[in-house]
Each structure stands twice: as structure tokens, then as C-alpha cells.
């Protein structure tokens, strides 16, 4: 049976056809490589290489041995690489949740690159509803999540920001605010504010759906919705107004709604989060991949100069 170092020396020399380059690749002395090949040839009982002072070439027997050994050797290398990746936390399936179609675009691109970079791994993504922003991560449905900030949950780790979005106000077409080229936070006192209801922390709701304007005027509360698409239906029906990420109009624009940009509101920030006790190398590797990707058109990313400050305003 051949030893591993004999196989590596033979296959490397069969590729390089040069003893010095082979010794450099293997980190061995050139004489050690020569001795290994000679010992292997004695065991085989025939020359594997033709050698001259200027030339190294495989013999017919050497070429056949290379062709027989190479597929199995590469299969062993792949198996060891997969096992190493799994041991480091890269193998298997990473489940990533997201809220907002802009985040989904980045996550899909990152998933494709992650699968290529770490063979044997997979990434599954799923939407996280605004009515239960932290339920899936706590129940184990997802391992990693991208959600609108703020985050003040002791059992969850706030990772880096992914996207930073300008805000707009969704207004019924027939409302006076729809004729404006922009709105201010003070204008929230001019119409019922439609909000999301569910298992949502009060600080998160107050951040995205403020109860008072900056001047202290009360913001009238309108109806609540469980899901994002319900908000669109209510706005289009004239039930009130609701803040949102401005670029979401590209994905969810519909008749009956005018999207009016805010002129004085900070952006909505989307950031990674994961369980505080369940951080893995696989999670960190995926998070670190995202800054290498281009953000969706019209969307600002913190790593390319976008704002990283938290804002008071509507989610996606």
C-alpha cells in the first residue's frame, strides 16, 4: 500500500515535471523528493519518470498510475475539506430570515456566494413577518436574521448593519398630503397612523410608529394590520397613512397609494441578529460575506458610505 506522502510526491511531480518546483510546493528538500520517488519506483518495479538534466517526463506506467490515483486522491481531498468545514461550523444548512425585499436581494446573493465558497453547505431563506419580528429566531426556525432596528433584546446579539433605507409616507391618493413633494415628521399629526399589531416590543413600535411628533403633538392612531400587505390595502382604501422604506415602492407600489418622501427623518436601518448563545463560525462567515456584495439599486449600505444611524420611522 502506498503511503500518503508517496502519493502526494508522485502526483505533484507528475503535474510539475520539475523536481525543484515539486519540492517547493511540498515544503520538502529536493533530495527528499527524489528519494521518495526512487523508493516508490522500486516498490512498483518500473520507472515512473524519465529523467535527464533538462527534462522530466512520465513513462507510460507513470502516466497510467497518475490517471488511476488522481480521481481517488481528489475525492479524499474533498472529503477532508468537507469534514474540516463541518468541524469549523461551515457544513450543513444555514437558515436565514429577512424582513424587507431589499434585504432579501442581498441575502440571496450572499447565499449563492456562500454555497460556492463552502462546498457542502446550503443556505435557506424565509421571510419574517413584522407582526412577530423575533419569534422565528427564538424558536429556532432561523439561525440568523435581518430585521429593522432598534434591537434591545438581552437574548439576541445585534450584529452589523446590512442596509440603511430612506423613508417615505404612504398616503391615500386623495389625501391632501399626496399633493406634497415631501413631508415632515410633524405631518404625522394630520392623519390616522396605520400600524402593525402582534408580538412586537413597545419600544420597537414607538420607534417606527411614533405616538408624538417632534414638537409634542399627538399622532392619531388608526387601524392595525397583522401583515404588511394589509397595510397597503388599508392605505389604498383611505383608512390612513403609514411610514415605509422609500424603495419598497418598487416592489409593492399599487394604485391608490402615493409615496411621499420624508425630508427630516433618519433612515430605517436593517441589521443582523442571532441568538446570544448560538453564535457560530458559519453565522460569522455569512455575515462577513455581505459587505463584498453590491446593495440593491437605490439602497444605501453602511459599508459603501451609507448611514448607520438608527432612525424613527416606518419599516418595510
TrEMBL record:
The UniProt record lists the keyword DNA-binding: yes
Q: Which InterPro entries match?
A: LysR_HTH_N, LysR_subst-bd, WH-like_DNA-bd_sf, WH_DNA-bd_sf
Q: Which Pfam families match?
A: HTH_1, LysR_substrate
UniProt keyword terms in alphabetical order? DNA-binding, Transcription, Transcription regulation
Which PROSITE patterns is this protein grouped with? HTH_LYSR (PS50931)
Q: Which residues form the HTH lysR-type domain?
A: 1-59
Q: What CDD domains has UniProt attached to this entry? A: PBP2_LTTR_aromatics_like
Q: Which domain of life is it from?
A: Bacteria
State the similarity comment: Belongs to the LysR transcriptional regulatory family.
The protein's name in its UniProt record? LysR family transcriptional regulator
Amino acid at each position: 500500500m502506498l503511503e500518503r506522502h508517496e502519493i502526494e510526491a508522485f502526483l505533484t511531480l507528475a503535474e510539475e515535471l520539475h523536481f525543484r518546483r515539486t519540492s517547493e510546493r511540498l515544503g520538502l528538500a529536493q533530495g527528499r523528493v527524489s528519494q521518495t520517488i526512487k523508493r516508490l519506483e522500486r516498490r512498483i518495479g518500473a520507472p515512473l519518470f524519465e529523467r535527464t538534466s533538462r527534462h522530466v517526463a512520465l513513462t507510460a506506467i507513470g502516466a497510467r498510475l497518475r490517471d488511476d490515483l488522481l480521481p481517488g486522491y481528489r475525492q479524499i481531498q474533498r472529503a477532508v475539506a468537507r469534514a474540516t468545514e463541518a468541524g469549523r461550523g461551515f457544513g450543513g444548512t444555514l437558515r436565514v430570515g429577512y424582513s424587507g425585499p431589499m434585504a432579501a436581494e442581498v441575502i440571496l446573493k450572499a447565499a449563492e456566494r456562500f454555497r460556492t465558497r463552502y462546498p457542502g453547505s446550503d443556505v435557506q431563506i424565509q421571510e419574517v413577518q413584522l407582526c412577530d419580528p423575533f419569534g422565528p429566531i427564538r424558536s429556532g426556525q432561523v439561525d440568523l436574521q435581518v430585521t429593522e432596528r432598534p434591537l434591545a433584546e438581552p437574548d439576541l446579539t445585534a450584529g452589523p448593519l446590512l442596509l440603511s433605507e430612506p423613508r417615505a409616507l404612504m398616503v391615500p391618493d386623495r389625501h391632501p398630503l399626496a399633493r406634497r413633494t415631501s413631508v415632515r415628521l410633524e405631518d404625522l399629526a394630520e392623519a390616522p397612523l396605520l400600524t402593525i399589531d402582534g408580538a412586537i416590543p413597545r419600544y420597537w413600535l414607538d420607534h417606527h410608529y411614533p405616538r408624538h411628533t417632534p414638537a409634542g403633538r399627538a399622532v392619531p392612531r388608526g387601524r392595525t394590520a397583522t401583515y404588511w400587505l394589509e397595510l397597503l390595502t388599508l392605505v389604498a382604501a383611505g383608512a390612513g397613512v403609514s411610514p415605509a422604506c422609500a424603495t419598497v415602492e418598487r416592489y409593492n407600489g399599487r394604485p391608490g397609494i402615493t409615496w411621499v418622501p420624508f425630508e427630516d427623518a433618519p433612515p430605517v436601518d436593517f441589521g443582523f441578529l442571532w441568538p446570544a448563545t448560538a453564535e457560530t463560525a458559519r453565522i460569522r462567515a455569512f455575515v462577513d460575506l455581505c459587505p463584498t456584495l453590491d446593495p440593491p439599486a437605490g439602497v444605501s449600505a453602511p459599508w459603501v458610505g451609507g448611514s448607520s444611524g438608527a432612525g424613527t420611522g416606518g419599516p418595510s
